[in-house]
Specification:
four-stranded mixed β-sheet; mainly beta; globular; single chain
């Protein structure tokens, strides 16, 4: 079952969005800035690309998340690191 469309607005720096099943998240993310984090819980990732407002996160050849953003970003805007619990943190460079 897919999540309902929603908007997540990072109103202040150092915000955190935990996604239990990242591929099911179909909302829009606003105000994502340096210091904010998106945690793809228990979801490892090896690469990302950003195009037409969508950050596509992959683990090998499998797409594990398609996150919709408002704002001006490029692929280089995002950084993937381990969350030290089997998942992936997405931060802004």
């Amino acid at each position: 079952m897919r999540s309902a469309w929603t908007t997540v607005d990072f109103l202040k720096d150092n915000g955190l969005l935990d996604l239990q099943v990242p591929i099911d998240f179909k909302g829009t993310i606003e105000g994502f800035v340096n210091g904010d984090r998106i945690d793809l819980l228990k979801t490892p990732a090896t690469g990302e690309s950003f195009r037409s407002g969508v950050l596509t996160v992959q683990n090998g050849s499998a797409t594990v998340a398609e996150l919709h953003f408002t704002g001006s970003y490029t692929t280089d805007s995002f950084h993937l690191v381990s969350d030290s619990h089997g998942g992936t943190l997405i931060t802004q460079r």
